[in-house]
């Protein structure tokens, strides 16, 4: 709880308004983006994990974590599967029960940007805070190149999840087979 309060005050301390031309440029860039490939660092309860992901709009994601279990997260647009490479077991959730349903929907994000006030943080990031279906989602864009650089949500256990993305490639050729969910053997 204390960490959340500190993050909130940190964001407010470095807040300044964003000019509408910048907001329009971000929305235009998002409209032109069909997919993103990137590396990530994810922090949950002071524990860092990293890996790589591919997002294909709308609502598809494939991520592989660089950990001993080689955890993989896959969404086909309807369901979200979490699986460890060395196990035949996996967990499946309706995508609608996770904040990813909003983050993986660029049309939703653009529509929210039309009605929300953007903020500049530390003169580096443009931030939007979205409240939707009991979810609070902070999304961050790089102020210079206007690309998505991360997000902050809460997981199903109400842990703060901060995801920072880097080495971003836009509209790279991808194999759609990576979004096929595993089946029981």
What does it look like?
By secondary structure, this protein is an alpha+beta fold. The protein has one domain (14-172): outer membrane lipoprotein receptor (LolB), chain A, CATH 2.50.20.10. It is 21% helix and 44% strand. Strands 1-8-9-10-11-12-2-3-4-5-6-7 form a twelve-stranded antiparallel beta sheet. β6 (79-83) and β7 (90-94) form a beta hairpin. α2 packs antiparallel against α4 (106-115). Residues 8-17 have low confidence and may be disordered. InterPro entries: LolA/LolB/LppX, OM_lipoprot_carrier_LolA-like.
For the structure shown, list the relevant keywords.
about 180 residues, alpha+beta, outer membrane lipoprotein receptor (LolB), chain A, signal, Outer membrane lipoprotein-sorting protein, LolA/LolB/LppX, OM_lipoprot_carrier_LolA-like, lipoprotein
Short structural description:
The protein has helices at 2-13, 20-32, 100-103, 106-115, and strands spanning 15-17, 35-44, 47-56, 60-65, 72-76, 79-83, 90-94, 119-121, 125-132, 135-142, 148-154, 160-170. The chain is α+β, with helices and mostly antiparallel strands. The chain is globular and about 50 Å long.
Mean pLDDT: 87
| Beta strand % | 35-45%
Structure class: alpha+beta
| CATH structural class | Mainly Beta
Structure annotation, total helices: 4
Order of helices and strands: HEHEEEEEEHHEEEEE
Unreliably modeled segments: 8-17
How far apart, in Å, are the first and last alpha carbons? 42 Å
Query: Which CATH-level-2 architecture?
Result: Clam
Protein name: Outer membrane lipoprotein-sorting protein
Keywords: Lipoprotein, Signal
Pfam families: LolA
InterPro entries: LolA/LolB/LppX (IPR029046), OM_lipoprot_carrier_LolA-like (IPR004564)
